[in-house]
Amino acid sequence: MPRSGSCSSAHNGMRSVSRPAVYIGFTYFGALLLALFLGETVTPYLAVTLLLAFVICMALRLHRRRPAGMLMLLTAGAAMTVFSICMLLFVRPTERYIDGEYRIQAVIESEPERYNGNYRYTARVHTIEDTGQSVDFAVRLSHGEALEAEIGDTVTCTVRFVSFWEETGLSSRAAQLADQKVFAAYITDYAQISVTPAVQRPFAYYCAAIRAQVRDSLLRALPRDEASVLSAMLLGLRGDLSDTLNTQYRAAGASHILVISGMHMAIISQFALGALCLLGIRRRYAAGISIAFILAFMAVSGMSATVVRSGIMQIILLFGILIGRTADTLNSLAIAMLVLSVLNPFCVGDVSLLLSFSATLGILLLSPRMLHCLTSRVRNTRRRMWLTHLLSPVVASLSAILGSLPVQLYVFGSINFSSILTSALVLYASAWLIRFGVLAAILLNVPLLGPAAASFVFLSGLLAKYQNTVVRMVAEALPQSFYIAGPYAAPAVLVCVVFLLCGFRLCKGKQTAVVYGLAAGVLAAGMLANAYLNAGCAQLLVLRTPLASCVALVENGSAAVFQCSGTDTAVAEALRSCGAQRIELLHVQSDEDAVRCAQSLATELPVSAVLYPDCVYWLSEENTLCQTYSYATEGMLNNGASYQITADGNLLYLSVRGCSIAVEQESSGFPSSTSTDILITDSAESLLRGGLTILDTEDTVSSGILEQLPAGRYLLTGEHERICLRFDEGGHYTLYGG
């Protein structure tokens, strides 16, 4: 601030606010995140409360003493107001179409994404022919086969609208709203699909065409594994990665290398700026050209939230060079988050964006302090410089892990410390891989310059091969992750974060190491308490949502999955919430949806053994025991529980700590006289009888279905999507989550 302004502020009795962009940007983003967890029923009342509090504080002239607090109060109230208005105007009106079947006209807005055997598109619905209404909302359009349509084409088809898994917080619904899709649309009539080509293609079509051309050129020039890694790092396309390579990157904690983030953007930005300066262009003009290059790169790489966030930061830094000013990185991050939040108030539901933001914030706040602490005692300037270059990758990786730790633990229930070693070994190679890869991609796709790309293609392939080799070695040599899971994981993380914030507030930026050490102790205590509460008990999970279903037995971190179908991520999340870190037994049923879900679930969690009927084709994997059965089968689990499966796989009989459980689907092979302690069935007319019956139905009590059932104790999955029974040593169970 100028000196004259400071004197004027002091004369008026008002305090100035340093870095207002930081207060506004971070508060706006944080308030939207809080609104996501509170839900649209509570948020409007809180928004009104905050705005009234702001008015009262203004009347009391508190803004003179605490201008920063007033600024944050107003920003939080405005953010929650915007969130509530967007929910009321753009989301809620569309929900009347959920669970209905309509014939629609929709414009394709994205390339197809292959997932669980289906092709998914982002489509914007403009007309619902059954009602004659003109609408404007985006959906996730799914079809078993690829549509003969490109971006900009209009598809006319009959669909069924289905809501995403609705929960407060970082749910599937929040993630899809962050991508501006209100619900899913499944094509029901395959025979009556018509495609009308676009008269004028949108800008996204040409960006996708360039992206596809660059991808094809990389696949032609390099081996499959190396080309797929480079395509992911430069274009954000991960569909060409093999399942094995994808699993290895995840196990080594190196998945962030494949995602376009701040590191990629910073390398590309500085490389473009340096290359232009070497060509004799003045630094200021080179910064302007680099801004244009960053904008082009953002468009070609897909404009995801993380790409936009990191791109805006680099544009601000380059713009500072253009006007002869030095941009503040923390301000740049705050402005980037504010722009994203204003353009899309639901962007806070994007887990990738949260991880990118928290990791970047951790690097900006922690990395300089760590480097100073490690190098401050080195007197020689040259040695200090070399030590700084040597330690920078490790310190940056550790800072990113600490910054993203709350999000990692809350969302995934695990943290992978192998990423520190992986980053230290491959970060320099990855940086040069991005530089050489950009040059190779440009030269390969510019006419007459193809021969000049040979050397850069060779260097890119060599570095990609080195990176893949290191990732493979780390994935095989070190443990995969450090887990914290179960119903008490979220409170443990929340207590740790609150303790950390209070510690920083009390210490006022001093004794950072002590605060982090105490916070780590609090988190460790929470994890130990969580492990103690989860130990010594078995849990039966019954999950039935519009997106997924699962029946599993979880004990001591191992899960025996007897039924699963639908979205594997929803099943994996439910298993982790019960403390599952691995799958001891994965029973695959014969229908196609169950097979696809089981195959994808095996990539989410490590699987020890797979059990499936001989009518199912299952590709055996290394270190996984595969067992088939042609008729009935039975066996024992490591925790002493026994199971029996009928020939058609439609009835499972479990014995858990002396408690008998029957899981029935369609017809069963057991006689009608069979009774069990717990019955899980999808048939209201089941011949089996249970002390407690979990009825898999979409109906609720209000529909009157209970009046048609025999007397007994019932739970309906139509009312309780996630039901969990916890068994003690004596076989007695406690019901929670239903």
Task: Write up what this structure looks like.
With 738 residues, the protein is an alpha/beta fold. The protein folds into six domains: 3-93; 98-201, OB fold (Dihydrolipoamide Acetyltransferase, E2P), CATH 2.40.50; 205-353 and 419-481, no CATH class; 354-407, no CATH class; 489-534; 538-736, Metallo-beta-lactamase, Chain A (4-Layer Sandwich). The chain has 21 helices and 24 strands. The strands form four sheets. An eight-stranded mixed sheet has the order 15-14-13-12-11-10-23-24. It has a seven-stranded mixed sheet with strand order 16-17-18-19-20-21-22, with no helix packed on it. It is globular. The model is unreliable at 1-14 and 667-672 (pLDDT under 50).
Sequence-ordered SSE layout with sheet pairings:
Blueprint: H1 3-11, H2 20-38, H3 43-59, H4 67-91, E1 101-108, E2 113-115, E3 118-128, E4 133-143, E5 154-162, H5 172-178, E6 183-187, E7 194-196, H6 203-221, H7 224-235, H8 243-251, H9 255-258, H10 262-278, H11 283-300, H12 305-322, H13 329-343, H14 351-375, H15 381-412, E8 414-415, H16 418-444, H17 454-477, E9 482-483, H18 489-507, H19 512-534, E10 538-544, E11 548-555, E12 558-566, H20 568-577, E13 582-587, H21 592-604, E14 607-613, E15 625-629, E16 633-636, E17 642-645, E18 651-656, E19 659-664, E20 675-681, E21 689-695, E22 713-716, E23 722-727, E24 733-736
Parallel strand pairs: 4-6, 12-13, 13-14, 14-15, 19-20, 20-21, 21-22
Antiparallel strand pairs: 1-3, 1-5, 2-3, 3-4, 5-6, 5-7, 8-9, 10-11, 10-23, 11-12, 16-17, 17-18, 18-19, 23-24
Helix pairs in contact: 2-4, 2-13, 3-4, 6-7, 7-17, 8-17, 10-11, 10-12, 10-16, 11-12, 12-13, 13-14, 14-15, 15-16, 16-17, 18-19, 20-21
